[in-house]
Amino acid sequence: MSFSEELEALVRLIDAGSSVSVAAAALGISVPRAYWLVRENRPGLLRRVSRTLLTDEHRALVVEEFSSSGSINKAAGVAGLSHGAARRILVRAGLVPAETMVAGKTDAREQFFTLLEQGWSKDAASREVGVHPRTGQDWVKGIRKQGNRRIHPDGRVVDYRAPSGYSRTMKTSFSLDPGGRFLSLADRLVIADGVINGQSLTAIAAQVHKSVSTISREVRAHSVNGLYLPHQADRDAAAARVRPKAAKLLTNSRLRAAVEHGLERRLSPEQISRRLVKEHPGDENMRVSHETIYQALYFQARGGLKREVQAALRSGRTRRKPQRRADERTSRFTSPMVMISERPAEVADRAVPGHWEGDLIMGSNNKSAIGTLVERATRYTMLVHLPHGHDAERVRDGLLEVIATLPAHLRGSLTWDQGSEMARHDQITMATDMQIYFCDPASPWQRGSNENTNGLLRQYFPKGTDLSVYGKEDLEHVAQELNGRPRKTLDWDTPAERLRNLITN
């Protein structure tokens, strides 16, 4: 069939009332080609088709087919309508809920993932939003489509128009200057989306805050058959930024001889480096840092110095030595910690009330948390509400809010582990006048009361749950229940009774 015959037959079917998709199927051509033929040669026909009124026959066919098959796509095909038109008929007939109406592919994708979260299977969710199950599978896997190409998250591209699919190995890398003058991987993904969606280079440049010329060069340099490949582009850019440079002491024989002479005189690398500046004040080629000398001695691959001159080092070492012992821990925080070994005896024997133990209980994937405070003498529990996260600043603010409710004589001290949430411990101490003591690493028994209480709290907040859904009232209710339990260690008094006695007395 020639081009003119194909176009004439297509127009005749559409004029007779068929949809473009039905007409394309009848002629054995693809739907995109049918739309292209009509759009390029008879654009008015498309506008007339879009204004075609639905008849009672259309409605009856859609309802009948959907009642038997349960598929909106099949109902649309039988009636010769689009999926959206068939869905609107079914919504008005009360056969499909109105809230599942999907305006476009973007909305369909959002609705698809919403249904998955509600427990739907991928195939059922795909049918519900009106897409092919293969499309739903692609959405889950992060595969994007451009024409007949399918682009995988790792950058692999499969083109079904080619005799065989082609692929390119991609390696994700990260820009050395994210948000700066270099394009990052995130910027390149935005560019790829813009190119696929037909956005102008000016619009794409505005989204990534770069010049249009930068975007133009990027797309032109990293496109294959008109397809921009962001992961490949990021890998190529990272490789291009690497500037392998030969060691200075390898290429400058005069400088190397001067360094070797200094080592033979038992000078340290720092003395050699400083002395070269004085002896050659106007010669930039006779400059070398002491670190470069050390690297040349310790790492022969970067060297240039003879092995025998290594003995010239006063230490006699041929490799670097760590600046701390293997069993020595670096300080956990910038502000000095007061360790539990320095805690007074009156705190350890629980003789004086007002000394607390604290910790966090974590929610699912460690994304939410609740702070717990337990008074050592009375086992009284207070819970800290952390709805917006458990970083150091939010934990500090939450603790200050809770501690402010205590009378002054019950603000003795606080014992905590070395978690990063206590990075602002010095600010808490200054604001509350409570000394904070830190437990030794991997020593939860040093906060025994708190660990026991956290176990009791798991009855109310099971592991793996989202703790951010609980409000202050919920935490207060749980704390009241715990504080109302009689304890054997308190001679069957409750923590609330013991604390009330302390406050009143």
Whole-number total of structural domains? 5
Q: According to CATH, what is the class of the largest domain? A: Alpha Beta
> Which oligomeric form is depicted?
single chain
Query: What's the CATH topology name of the largest domain?
Result: Nucleotidyltransferase, domain 5
Flag low-confidence runs. 48-52, 99-103, 163-179
Number of helices: 24
Based on CA inertia axes, which overall geometry fits?
flat
How much of the residues is beta strand, in percent? 5-15%
* Strand arrangement across the biggest beta sheet: 6-11-10-7-8-9
CATH architecture of the largest domain: 2-Layer Sandwich
Distance between the termini: 102 Å
Task: Give the C-alpha Rg.
Answer: 36 Å
Average pLDDT works out at 80
The helix fraction, in percent, is 40-55%
CATH homologous group name of the largest domain: Ribonuclease H-like superfamily/Ribonuclease H
Biggest sheet overview: 6 strands, mixed
Q: Structural class, judged by helices and strands?
A: alpha/beta
What is the number of beta strands? 11
